[in-house]
Each structure stands twice: as structure tokens, then as C-alpha cells.
# Entry
Amino acid sequence: MRHHPTATRVRALPLLAAVLCLGVPATMHAQFLDGFDAPTIDGWFTLAGDGGATIAFEPHPDTGFARMRIDSRQDAHGVWWTIIKRDVSAHLDLAKLRDPEYELRVEARVRASHAPRRVNFMINTQRTTDFHEHLREYDIADTDGWHTISMTTRNLDAGPGDQVFVQLGVTDWGSGQCHLDIDTYRADVVRRGTADVGEPLVYHPAPVAPAGFAQHLPAAHDSVVRLDYPKVNFNGWRTDLGSGPVPVLTVTANQWVVMRWDFSAWRGRTVDGAGVLELTTASLALGGDYVGAFGEDLGIEFGKIRVYEILGGDPAWDQTSVTYASLLRGEAAETVFNGQMVIDYDLTPEPGGRTLLTLPRPVMQRLVDGRTRGLVIRPLGAIAATVFASEDTQRRGPVLHFSLKP
# Structure
């Protein structure tokens, strides 16, 4: 989940002025359904942006699905988005959509090549200015089978004469090759309040204040690991803030922060909603004319910290001995660390300032269950971001805030 004006990196994309050829016949009541059973894919177009990813949308008529095939091997920064998109106006009862009792609902049946990963729906028109209003993300937890996800709009401003666009996005899944299979995609004008399937996650949610949670759990272990010194333990990393050494954690290009918590008291419990990771700034150094180098759309993404899940490696690493190599435990980095970040965000620059990072409910559930073994913080851009460690005597170290269902 990215904390910037993109849709999990789907940004305010340019809309096509011309109505595209719509090759799928309308269903009853002018509803739209594409089962991707034909030897060609009609009406859909693809877009990719920011980083070096490319996308192809391929039919697989023999098995009745289409595939978003993405190649991000040339991406240098892990910042990219890809989408499939089409105009479904001709298939919808736009007059009914103007009625406040009706909304637009999209639904897709998908299967992912990598997991856990998030995908996203977006709906917009030629007049849309807020491209996050009708945007939701969905956590796909496995690669074993098909998952049905849906999203229903709230107060969609669309009616006769409008172009209504629907899309499905894959964003920042990491560097390499991946794909998302789509078995069906439908769009229906439905009564307000129609239930959705899957778990729609609000993009760019405002973080809940720590006081709003029942549990406040400091990190059990936190340290830094260095890619250029993979066998060196850096526990005890510190800085002097004027009154002597203070234990801190610093994120740079070659140095990452790793954190894990002891959830043994809550194994088997169900997480209630999103959680929040709280960090307290010790210092922050950053700069660079990224916009001048990469253009505005990509340039504005830099100068942030990025939070990723630790999915593999040593499940019980200890801060007193952990190194980059020992954390990996012989596994490939791309399997130990989720290729898609949970969130990236600007660290609060003022010393002592708090940064609250929202962790979606599925991520929190994996942490509590032990399927996610901790979190790693990496940089996006040339920054030196330092936060207080768990050993800080003023208790300014990393804390997870969350709640559980009874």
C-alpha cells in the first residue's frame, strides 16, 4: 500500500477520449460480463507506468481465462504499476446509475502467480478528479486457486452521456516476471448496500491513533542488517544526540531495519481491523532532485521508507546475533522478503516525531499467526532515516498497535 497519489500505484491516469471497440455482448439488463473464452481479447487496453515494467494481456481460450503477464526485470527501483482497463458504458443502464439508490459493482475471479500480493480495482469516468475515491485493494493470500473479489462504489457520479471505465491493477510486485489470471470480470448496476466478496481494503487510509487499539506491543527484537557486510552483526547501533550514545535503527541504501514481535499470547486469535506500526524519529537526512532526473510522476515517489513483510528465513532470529546472511538462512532474498511492500511513507522529519504506518488487517493476521515472521524497513531513494530502537530508555522504540476480536 503506497502512501502517495497512486493506486497501489494506480495513479490519476489519462483517460481515452475515444470510445473503444466493445467486443463482448451485453448480458441481461445491459450488464457487462467478460468470461475471456474467445480466442481474442476485445475492448480491453493495457497501461504501465513509473518504473520499467511491461504488460501483455493474453487470451487462454482453451482454459477460459486471460492473463496479465508482467515483466519487471528492467525495473531499477521497485516502483511500477500495470493495469487492464476498458469502457463499459454501452453495457450499463446509465440512467439507473444516476439514481442515488443505485451504484456500480465490479467483480473478478483471479489467480496470482505470487502470494501474498495485493491487486486493486478502480472505477472512473472522463470527469473523475479523485482517483482514489473508487479504488480498493485486495490481499491475495495464495497461488493455489481462484479468488473472487468485488467492489461497489459509493456515490458514483455517472449517468447518461458519461464514459465509465473499469480497471484491474497489479502494482509493485517486485522485480522479475509475474502474472495475474482473470477468469471473469463483470460490472453491474446494483442497489446501494449490495454486499461485496473478498475483503476490500481502503487505499491510503488515515492511520488510527494508538489510543484506539487494545494492544500495544513493543518489538521483541530489532536490529539493522547490511547488504555489504552480510556476516556482521550490528546490534547496538547507536548515535549521540548530545547527551551520550542512544540506541537507534538507521535505514540507508545498504542497511535495512528488521523487527519482530512475540505474538505467542495471541496465536489462534482473529485480528480486528488494520493495525499501526509506530516509529519515533531520531534524525532524518534526505535530498535529491528526483523530479529533475525521472520526471514528476516517478520523481515524487522517492525519499520515503518502505515496510515489507519477512516471509521466510530464520523465524527466530535474535538481535544479538542476526546478520543479513543469517536472516536469509541460505534462502533467496526474493522469497524471504515479500516483493510487494506493505506501505511506503514519508518519515516524520522532526526528532521525537511519530510516524504511524497503517498495516492492513491481512498483514496483521499473518503476523499474529506467525506466517509473516517480522517486518523489514528499506529505503526508497537516497535517505538516511534513523528511528529509536527498542532498547531506548525513554521507550521510543517500534511499537505495533492492534486489536483482536473476542
Notes: The chain has two domains: 28-200, 210-402. The mean pLDDT is 91.
